[in-house]
Amino acid sequence: MDLVTGYKSQSGTGLTTKGYAMSEEKWITRFIFLESVAGVPGMAAGMLRHLKSLRQMKRDHGWIETLLEEAYNERMHLLTFLKLAEPGPLMRLMVLGAQSVFFSGFSLAYMISPQICHRFVGYLEEEAVITYSKAINDLDNGHLPQWENLQAPQMAIKYWQMPEGQRCIRSLLLYVRADEAKHREVNHTLGNLNQTDPNPFSAKFKVRDALSQLEVDGAKKQF
Ligand SMILES: [Fe+2]
Ligand SMILES: [Fe+2]
Q1: Which domain holds residue 216?
Q2: Percent of the chain with pLDDT over 90
Q3: How far apart are CA 117 and CA 114, in angstroms?
Q4: 125 a known binding residue?
Q5: Known binder of ligand: residue 69?
Q6: What's the whole-model pTM score?
Q7: Any binding-site annotation on 74?
Q8: What are its E.C. numbers (predicted)?
Q9: Where are the alpha helices (DSSP H) in the chain?
């Protein structure tokens, strides 16, 4: 991915090394490629678990919705960045190639060991967090002047409900990075669980937790 997107890690020779300094265009290229790949695992895993549930006529314990939600979130990252750049035919070809290889490889691996796959995705998400942190750092250090006064696309403002006064590209990168950090947490957690364990991130459990918190708060008030 680093080779395809002309990226070199800041450790070692550094991003500012001649030929590897990241411009706005290079960052967007990296974001688009990264997000086009990042949207695959959630959908592949969700689909496989859905099919398994149908086939075995057993419950999934709330994993599918979280996985599909992750895939949707990644696709929104991609669609947002596509508002800032138009990928050329070569990029589209690389995305096509990467998707074919990654989707088949990941699906096969998920059928063999879902736990290892979630762990792998957890580490990929950590890399995504590092990428966005470095981009924010570049922006803060004045290396990305075109983004300093640029507004986030309308689609992003609506999706993340970005408040007035916090709709710049820096805020957008902070929102995206927060999503990646959540994906990292979710995937590392799913990697720790057994396949029949309930998904702790399921909306059903979130509602139950919120209700029990309300009950605790209510009990405290009465006391
Ligand atoms: Fe993403
Ligand atoms: Fe992610």
Answers
A1: 2-6+22-221
A2: 81
A3: 5
A4: yes
A5: no
A6: 0.86
A7: yes
A8: 1.-.-.-
A9: 24-56, 63-82, 89-112, 114-140, 145-148, 154-159, 169-192, 203-222
